[in-house]
Write a structure and sequence with these properties.
Helix content is about 50%, strand content about 15%. With about 250 residues, it is of the alpha/beta class. The chain has a seven-stranded parallel beta sheet, sandwiched between helices.
């Protein structure tokens, strides 16, 4: 029997990149993944859902009403929820000069939406004794002055992970997080292409300088998420791991 057999897991931002990698891995482990993306990603999301035996739900997480609607749609269609992976996020650049509107737009997606999703999912996770995995960033710990609101949003996500672990454990619900290092995704490739002055081989050159000769890949992260969702991690909660090849001082 596969270790996630019969479980329903929502992975936000899973129409591409890290989220897609997570959805495909947990499907291979026996879960029915709920693929989430924006409305303009529906065609891609529906294809991934069909390929993984899951379902697709659309919703813009900057809207505070959407998290509740997503959870309600899952329960209507699948009648249960065993896991939530808060992966969706934006990493727009901005420093101390950022406007209040810019700051709020990042916090709404990266911190408020995970909070509201957990809030909405919690009654169902209590029933299934399920778990939450929050996908953060190492910048939530050591920060970046050029990605200041982003860094702050990921610090908030890590803090929430730790703060909720005790109360959730009383109902048998686990919550953990991963602070990711630099990860290769198609979005990174696009950013590399549009960034003036960088050669096409720039990402490969960066990867070659890493301790293990490449950047992290979505499948690296997906393996750890699948473990945290499984019963093998049933005694782990309230932990936020640094998932990177380098120490924060390196």
């Amino acid at each position: 029997m596969k270790r996630l057999e019969g479980r329903v897991v929502l992975v936000t931002g899973s129409a591409a990149g890290i989220g897609e990698g997570i959805a495909r891995r947990i499907a291979a482990e026996g879960a029915a993944p709920v693929i989430h993306g924006r409305e303009q990603e529906q065609a891609v999301g529906e294809r991934i859902a069909a390929e993984t035996g899951g379902v697709f739900v659309a919703g813009e997480l900057s809207d505070p009403d959407v998290p509740c609607r997503i959870v309600e749609a899952i329960i209507q269609r699948l009648d249960r929820l065993d896991g939530l992976v808060n992966n969706a996020g934006v990493s727009w650049r901005g420093g101390i000069e950022s406007s209040a509107e810019f700051f709020d737009s990042i916090l709404a997606i990266n911190a408020r939406a995970p909070f509201l999703l957990i809030q909405s999912a919690l009654p169902h996770l209590k029933t299934s004794r399920g778990c939450v995995v929050n996908i953060g960033s190492k910048l939530g710990r050591n920060g970046s002055h050029t990605l200041l609101p982003y860094s702050m949003s990921k610090a908030a996500l890590a803090n929430m992970t730790r703060a909720l672990s005790g109360p959730l454990a009383e109902d048998g619900v686990r919550i953990n997080g991963l602070n990711l290092g630099w990860t290769w995704t198609q979005n990174e490739v696009v950013l590399n292409v549009i960034n003036p002055g960088r050669p096409e081989s720039w990402l490969d050159e960066v990867g070659a300088k890493q301790p293990f000769g490449r950047l992290l890949l979505p499948e690296d992260i997906a393996a750890m998420v699948a473990y945290l969702l499984s019963d093998e991690a049933r005694m782990i909660t309230g932990q936020v791991w640094d998932f990177d090849q380098r120490s924060f001082g390196g």
